[in-house]
Specification:
CATH topology of the largest domain: Rossmann fold
Radius of gyration: 24 Å
Distance between the termini: 59 Å
Number of helices: 13
Number of domains: 2
Strand content: 5-15%
Strand order of the largest sheet: 3-2-1-4-5-6-7-8
Length: 291
């Protein structure tokens, strides 16, 4: 019994695929792990692996100085917090649940009002990656609180801290994921065009993959231009690019491939040129997008 109580204690609430992987990784690394899930039988396998199963969310939080919330969405987080109530006082809550920056900030306000500390976290990886460097974790919130629980969080993967604003981990996560979807939907439309023209998709993709490395430098250059508001002709002047866009739009539409996003870009270029900035580059379109 002494050996068990000497081990660091942590609670995991939410035993879906990710939460179960988190709890199992903590058990394997010697943590005295308490778990709770609304559907109780999801804890059975973890109980057999050595976890303690709490009968309520409040008792689960009370069992450990640190509780990790791994739930379906922020609505589920709010439901758990309501159930936990005053039992949160004196404890640290870390959410690994997806949600908006404002939801993260609201969760932090709830924690502070109930005498608890809060760190928001976002997971960029799959359950099998938990406990390995492949798992990327973004965190934000009170720095002292993060520093105190960082050793435990780092057992789950590669952890990065994005500042005291509790919403910034969500900003990082949402921006990274959204950028991926923006790129991938463009890729799918491009493959549709390539196939419509009778070219081999895999061979084209191999060539495209080889050219993507060059975008890293371009992205950094564009971010620097936006920050300084000094817009050079990064991809060539907009006057030249606008003519190219007409060709790209015409090609897509002649092949029956959707060109809505291309037309949106062309409209931005035309607006920027009309404002007298045709000598600037693609990064200058940011001036039309930034609120």
């Amino acid at each position: 019994m002494t050996e068990s109580t000497d081990r660091p204690a942590v609670t995991v609430i939410g035993l879906g695929n990710m939460g179960s992987a988190v709890a199992r990784a903590l058990l394997e690394r010697g943590y005295r792990t308490t778990v709770w899930n609304r559907t109780a039988d999801k804890a059975d396998a973890l109980f057999e692996a050595g976890a303690e199963v709490a009968s309520t969310a409040g008792k689960a939080v009370a069992a450990s100085p640190l509780t990790i919330l791994s739930l379906l969405d922020n609505t589920a987080v709010e439901d758990v917090l309501e159930a936990v109530g005053e039992a949160a006082a004196g404890h640290t809550l870390v959410s690994l649940t997806s949600g908006s920056p404002d939801q993260a900030r609201a969760n932090q306000c709830w924690a502070l009002a109930h005498g608890a500390a809060y760190v928001d976290g976002k997971v960029m990886g799959d359950p099998p990656d938990v406990g390995t460097p492949k798992m990327s974790l973004a965190f934000s919130g009170d720095r002292d609180t993060y520093d105190a629980v960082q050793p435990t969080l780092r057992t789950l993967g590669s952890a990065a801290y994005y500042g005291p604003d509790a919403g910034h981990a969500a900003v990082e996560f949402n921006a990274q994921v959204a950028m991926g979807y923006e790129f991938l939907v463009g890729f799918l439309h491009t493959l549709s065009l390539v196939e419509a023209e009778g070219m081999d998709l895999e061979a084209f993709t191999d060539r495209l993959a080889g050219s993507l490395a060059g975008y890293a430098g371009l992205l950094k250059m564009m971010a620097s231009a936006i920050k300084s508001e000094t817009y050079g002709p990064d991809l060539g002047s907009l006057d030249v690019q606008a003519a190219l866009m007409d060709d790209l739009i015409g090609h897509r539409e002649s092949a029956g491939v959707e060109a809505v996003r291309m037309r949106e870009v062309k409209a931005l270029m035309d607006r920027r040129i009309a404002d007298g900035h045709g000598d600037q580059g693609f990064s200058s379109l940011y001036a039309l997008l930034h609120p």
